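Tip: read the tokens left to right.
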């Protein structure tokens, strides 16, 4: 990376696919050099030269596939990676190999922009951490105390990545009406259906946009999706969501919820 620009390697055995992605990348102001490779071996050699910040890697290639590139390089030499493929059955394996995103062919320029933005953000975070560790090491060598730094706040979620039956589905947070805890899983309720995500509510809660509020120990809602509220006795209420479902509002959360709803 020179002059703050990021070098990008595109790996694809299809000439038109390489050229298309390369042309999109050359239009980006944050991108410096754009390298093109037509095989896994070419990709491995280029990455080992240490000039690649971001890797757009096709999965299905003759002789060696994209996963062989990952295995050959290892995490220590692996650039920030976006997988590119025409086959969605590889999605789960791609994320298991530390991919920051997954482009399914054919994709449009908007989807490409989203993937590139995620990759650039990942590189910047990695560089920032590496720079701090470098200066911290120098200060320790000089006998200086390394100052404490405030841990960065978790990034707000813009989508959920749901893995199920060998597939990966992306559920935009903007489409979520409420979240329901279900043991070691979280039910994600949208206007179109319900998705099951492995995890617990408390790990997700701090990363949700400000419109999301807890209304029950096992329920978090998007307050903008409430269409009606009614008392049900004993100081408790029910909330009607746009989808039509009625959800319980516990007494312990009522005051905070009502205040937000009335603002």
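Filled-in amino acids:
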């Amino acid at each position: 990376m020179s002059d703050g620009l990021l070098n990008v390697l595109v790996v694809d055995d299809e000439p038109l696919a390489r050229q298309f992605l390369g042309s999109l990348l050359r239009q980006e102001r944050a991108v410096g050099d754009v390298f093109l490779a037509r095989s896994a071996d070419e990709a491995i050699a280029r990455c080992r030269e240490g000039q690649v910040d971001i890797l757009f890697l096709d999965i299905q290639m003759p002789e060696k596939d994209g996963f062989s590139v990952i295995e050959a390089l290892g995490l220590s030499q692996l650039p920030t990676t976006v997988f590119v493929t025409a086959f969605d059955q590889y999605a789960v394996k791609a994320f298991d190999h530390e991919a920051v995103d997954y482009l399914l062919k054919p994709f449009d320029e908007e989807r490409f922009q989203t993937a590139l933005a995620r990759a650039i953000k990942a590189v910047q975070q990695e560089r920032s951490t590496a720079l701090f560790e470098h200066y911290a090491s120098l200060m320790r060598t000089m006998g200086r105390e390394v100052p404490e730094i405030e841990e960065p706040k978790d990034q707000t979620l813009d989508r959920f990545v749901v893995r199920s039956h060998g597939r990966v589905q992306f559920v935009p947070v903007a489409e979520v009406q409420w979240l329901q805890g279900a043991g070691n899983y979280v039910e994600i309720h949208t206007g179109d259906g319900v998705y099951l995500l492995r995890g617990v509510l408390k790990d997700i809660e701090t990363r949700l946009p400000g419109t999301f509020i807890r209304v029950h120990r096992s329920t978090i809602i998007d307050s903008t999706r409430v269409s009606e509220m009614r008392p049900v006795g004993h100081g408790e209420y029910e909330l009607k969501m746009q989808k039509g479902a009625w959800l319980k509002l516990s007494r312990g959360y009522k005051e905070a919820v009502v205040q937000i709803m009335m603002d």
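The mean pLDDT is 82. The CA atoms of residues 108 and 141 lie 50 Å apart.
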